[in-house]
Amino acid sequence: MSQGLTIPPDLEAEMTPRVQAHVEMLHGRVTQLEQEVADLRRELTKIARFALQPAQPPAIGAERGVADTKPTPPKTRRQRGGQPGHQKHERPLIPTDECDDVQSIRPHSCRRCGTTLQGHDPSPLRHQVFELPEIRLHVTEYQLHRLTCACCGRQTCAELPEGVTSSQSGPRLVAFTALLMGLFRQSKRRVSLFCETLFGHSVSPGLVVKHQQQVSDSLEASYGEVLAAIPEQTAVSADETPTKQQNQHAWIWTVVAATFTVFHVRLTKAAVVIRELLGDDFSGVVTSDRAKTYHWVWRHQWCWAHLKRDFEKMSLRDGPAGQIGHKLLNCTHQLFHHWHRVRDGTITRRGFACLITRLRSEVEQILTDGSCCADTATAATCTELLSYFDNLWLFVYCPGVEPTNNAAERSLRHAVIWKHLSFGTQSDHGSRFVERLLTVVETCRQQKRNTFQFLIDSITAQRQGQKAPSLLSGV
Fold first, then answer.
1. Total structural domains in the chain?
2. Spatial separation of the C-alpha atoms in residues 257 and 411, rounded to whole Å
3. d(C-alpha 437, C-alpha 265), whole Å
4. How distant, in Å, are the alpha carbons of 32, 252, 292 from that of 296?
5. Planar angle of CA 162, 166, 170, nearest 5 degrees
6. Is residue 292 part of a domain?
7. Potential cystine with 4: which of 31, 100, 222, 369 (Cβ 3.0-4.6 Å)?
């Protein structure tokens, strides 16, 4: 008999042996199904408890032992790489007259009967091989003769040609080592090893430091020119990131304009730095985060990408604070949707301004309600946004102003990677080199100019006593 169910004695007496055996089999099946139902209920309870937990980043969930419920994608039988029927991609052949070497290869005999072949194929099959040439330094020796005057007996020594200095490194070599440090983020010892490996010529770390100083000096005038052009801009983006200088706290500041970018390394994060960069009479619009460093700016556009992050945090709170966050987040999504339509040309700026007028009133009402919220963090954020409410909407009415600070964030990315690899600078001279070279690299990228050629031109101009090339002309 089943342990879960039993047959009453009065019924069991009336059953035939076959009926009794069938009933016992059914009792066993019922008991088995009840056990399976109980197991399924326990699993559903676990899933329901996990679903009620608030959303959290994967790293936090892993630390707390929460299992990853992301479904595993089904396995596919497709092989890696290109699939049958996909479009083939090949390197396009360059014109024959642009090749450095052209070799015409003809078959000598017929592959079937062996008869000697003659003639010319007007359209032969073309196969091109791209190869690096042998890399070696080009060395020029200047022999300065000392000649004696037949009249007075005085010796006179020849002088180096114009543009040739006492340095043993030419402009291209100096620019190359600077580019390895500033653009490709290599240390001085790595640059020394690279040159010795590639050129077979010893370039010591001390010589690399001299090259760094030469490049920094040659860029001083060009850097000063873009620095002086910042106050004349109508719209800029600004940001900063911490670094080190001789184990002291320092900051890399960046100001991004439409056609150039300026980096500035200083030992303070105070507002005095951005005041020096923009000037006290700056009348344009500055786009940045909500840092108090920029609160003195008359026309200050706050970054909506930063605001969106704050609204997302707010939406995770319980009660009315979370509802306020959800409402503000929804308004932010609408704002970016309308802005993308403006950039795509789907709507005009006039139509965009009309849509934002209604959205602006809605945001103001939500912030007013949020300033009275019992949650102190939510109330403080809403009160601050109401106090600087106009700073949220300058991009609607000022051409050239973006609703986010992404331009400055992108320009700082290279500087952030550099500081993590180099651990900062060891002197004021090193900081000047960093800010000037980063300025040249990012500005040339904006203007689609060759950074290497600009450095060569700058070094050559300094050695020949000529005017430094401009970072503003774009030519």
1. 2
2. 11
3. 12
4. 75, 20, 8
5. 75
6. yes
7. 31
Q: Position 164: which residue type?
A: V
What residues contact 382, with CB distance under 8 A and at least 6 apart? 324, 366, 367, 368, 369, 370, 371, 373
Rounded CA separation 381/290 (Å):
11
- Collapsing DSSP states into helix, strand and coil, what is residue 210? helix
- Residue 468: phi and psi, rounded to 5, are -70, 145
Distance from the Cα of residue 441 to its chain's centroid: 14
Whether pLDDT at 64 is above 70? no
Bridge partners of 264? 253
* H-helix segments, 109-204: 171-182, 188-199
Please report whether residue 202 resides in a domain. Answer: no
pLDDT tens digit sequence for 206-249 = 999 999 999 999 999 999 999 999 999 999 999 999 999 998 99
Residue reference for tokens 């089943």: 2
Q: Is 414 helix (H, G, I), strand (E, B) or coil?
A: helix
Please give the Cα distance from 375 to 363 (Å, whole number): 18
Domain housing 20: 1-30
d(CA 421, CA 265): 17
pLDDT, average across residues 168-176 = 92
CB–CB of 378/324 below 8 Å? yes
For 256, list phi and psi in degrees, rounded to 5.
-110, 120
Residue 93 backbone zone (phi > 0: left; psi -120 to 50: alpha; other: beta): beta
Name 54's Cβ contacts closer than 8 Å, sequence gap at least 6: 316
Position 245 in a domain: yes
Neighbour count for residue 320 (Cβ, 10 Å) = 15
Average pLDDT over residues 35-46: 83
Cβ pair 211, 175 in contact under 8 A:
no
